[in-house]
Every structure is written in structure tokens, then in C-alpha cells.
Specification:
The complex is a heterodimer of chains A (98) and B (237). Chain A is mainly α and 98 residues long. Helices cover 56% and strands 0% of the residues of chain A. Chain A has one domain. Chain B is built from 8 helices and 7 strands, in the order βαββαβαβααβαααβ. The chains are: A mainly alpha (98), B alpha/beta (237).
Chain lengths: 98, 237
């Protein structure tokens, strides 16, 4: 599984979330979309929802059991959840470690 | 009443779990039962999975299978529990660990794995079966009562986390009911339970319908505004 595929999966999950938001809360999605911290367009529960979607998708569709919220992720100086790009890169690392 | 609803019940092979399973099946639900032993319910709408709820990995594994085979869950009854009633200073460590794993950690895991499936349909009812021991705090039940108190707190916090997904989380704290499990208690334990029952505001054992009445209330589609609530049976509060 290459980086582009992972990137597309992350984008698709965020887009799916945006589709459920009311019109005045919708936002455009690209690789620099902020998911966490200052400037984030989504609340913490929405981020949880994206994380669950991603873990479920990688497990059910690709047979890859990854945990996006273990100590490895949380102890990083730069959070993997800052943007779609950083999250895709982090997942790429996890997938390559498998 | 529950046509097309998928109900998951832990500890479904006997006792209160069996009673609840039969109730939902009699009311046209599809029931998924989890228990350590083999199925004791013969019904074409009943799907049984043998799982040791003391093993967190086993719970995660069975939910992957359930997600694949059933796609969704609408109602969860967290019923399974183990009880060793013993003075805390002489409680065997293994029994203590079993209680924490089955009565507390498994409830957390089953609720959250179910919620992951429920969120897709933005609908769900999570109902935890607690105990009169939480309020009565009987000698010998320190860990059991603490675990049962803990699952009330779990339900209350999860109620907040899942509210936006229209998933409610509630608890029914039941009194003793005449089941095969109760008959397996030692004579001294049965005497202790009878003494407790005799001192309840409503001094009798629970009957199946006392429990089902509250389950039905929490499980109802009409109860979308009822969450983070605990109902005690028998006049306890």
C-alpha cells in the first residue's frame, strides 16, 4: 500500500465526515486541512470518529490492525493529527512497520 | 416490537441474560448472544458466539466477526458478570481479577465496540445491568459492588460522548432473581441474600418482568431523551 493510497483513504474519511455536517459547518478538504489543535475545523468527537473510521477501514478492508492513539502517537513532539498530510504520513509509517 | 432490531446480549446462555434474550426473540428481534459456554437458545433469529469476556483480545476479535456478519447493532445489554462474595482480605487474587475483567473491563469494551457499529446508523441503546450491591454495599462484595458502581459511571460518561450519535447509555440495577445461578450459591450466601431481600423497601426477589419492564423502557425508540440514568429495582436508591 503506497502513500498516495493512504492519503486518499484519509481524505475520503474526512470528506465523509464533512458530508454529515450542517451547511454552515462544512469546510473544504485538502492535505493541509487541520484536524487537531489551533485552527482545527472539527471538534474532538469528530476527530475520534475519523480515527475509528480509519482503524476500522484498515482492519476490515486491508487486514491491517493499526492503533492510531497508542503511546507511540501520543508521545510524539509533533502530533500526527495536526493535518491530513501528517496523519497520512503517520499511517504510512505504521503500515510499513507491519 | 423489535422487528429488524439487532440486539447483543452478553451472558446470554443462562440467568438474567437468557431471560432477556428470550424476551427480545419473542418480540421479533435478532439476538446476538455472547457467553463463555455453548448456546442454550434454539431460535433461528439467535446467533451465538462463544467468547471469554475476561479476555480483551477475544472481545475485539468477536466484534470483528459480528461487524462482518451482522453489519450493525441497535441495542446492547451488558449483562455478563461473575461474582465471588468474600471478605476482601481473603479474596483469591484470581477471582478478584476475573471480576474486574468481566464485570468492568468487558462492559467498557463491549460498549465501545458496539458504539463503533452504532454510530454508522446514528442510533443505539446501551444498557448496563448493575446490582443492588452498589447501593447496599454488602460485606464480602467490595470488588463486585465497586465494579458495578463503575459501570454506572461508564454509562454516564459514554452517554455524553455518544449523545451526538443518538446513542443512549443507561443502567438498571437489579435485585436478586431466582435463577439457576442463585441456586448455585452456598447455603450461607443464599441466607445472606435472603436477609438482604427481606430488608428491601419491597421485600421480595425480582421477577423477570420487573427487569424486562426497565429494559423495555431504556430500549424503546421513544427513550431517545433518556440517557445517563440508573434505575434501581425494589425501592433501593
Amino acid at each position: 500500500m503506497n502513500k498516495n493510497e493512504i492519503h486518499d483513504i484519509v481524505i475520503s474519511k474526512v470528506v465523509s465526515l464533512v458530508d454529515t455536517l450542517p451547511e454552515d459547518k462544512k469546510f473544504s478538504v485538502d492535505q493541509n486541512t487541520t484536524l487537531f489543535g489551533n485552527g482545527s475545523s472539527i471538534d474532538s468527537l469528530s476527530l475520534v470518529s475519523i480515527i475509528v473510521d480509519l482503524e476500522t477501514t484498515f482492519s476490515a478492508e486491508y487486514g491491517l490492525d493499526i492503533s492510531l492513539t497508542d503511546d507511540k502517537a501520543m508521545m510524539r513532539e509533533k502530533s500526527p493529527f495536526e493535518s491530513i498530510k501528517s496523519l497520512a504520513e503517520y499511517i504510512s509509517e505504521l503500515v510499513n512497520d507491519k | 416490537m423489535y422487528t429488524d432490531k439487532i440486539v447483543l446480549i452478553t451472558g446470554s446462555s443462562r440467568g438474567v441474560g437468557y431471560i432477556i434474550g428470550k424476551y427480545f426473540l419473542d418480540n421479533n428481534a435478532i439476538v446476538i448472544g455472547l457467553s463463555r459456554g455453548a448456546s442454550s437458545i434454539d431460535n433461528r433469529n439467535y446467533f451465538h458466539y462463544e467468547v471469554d469476556l475476561a479476555q480483551p483480545d477475544a472481545i475485539t476479535r468477536v466484534f470483528k466477526i459480528i461487524a462482518k456478519e451482522h453489519k450493525r447493532i441497535d441495542i446492547v445489554i451488558n449483562n455478563a458478570a461473575v461474582l465471588t462474595s468474600q471478605y476482601s482480605m481473603i479474596m483469591p487474587l484470581k477471582n478478584a481479577i476475573d471480576m474486574v475483567q468481566v464485570d468492568f473491563l468487558a462492559v467498557f469494551l463491549v460498549a465501545r465496540e458496539s458504539a463503533k457499529l452504532m454510530r454508522k446508523n446514528t442510533y443505539g441503546r446501551i444498557i448496563n445491568i448493575s446490582s443492588m450491591a452498589v447501593s447496599l454495599e454488602p460485606i464480602g462484595d467490595s470488588l463486585y459492588a465497586a465494579c458495578k458502581a463503575g459501570i454506572t459511571t461508564l454509562a454516564n460518561v459514554m452517554a455524553k460522548e455518544y449523545a451526538s450519535m443518538h446513542i443512549t447509555c443507561n443502567t438498571v440495577a437489579i435485585t436478586a432473581i431466582e435463577t439457576d445461578m442463585l441456586k448455585q450459591h452456598s447455603p450461607s450466601a443464599r441466607t445472606k441474600i435472603k436477609d438482604i431481600i427481606n430488608n428491601l423497601p419491597v421485600p421480595r426477589m425480582a421477577e423477570a418482568d420487573d427487569i424486562l419492564n426497565v429494559i423495555e423502557f431504556f430500549a424503546s425508540e421513544r427513550s431517545s431523551y433518556i440517557t445517563a440514568q440508573t434505575i434501581y429495582l425494589g425501592g433501593i436508591n
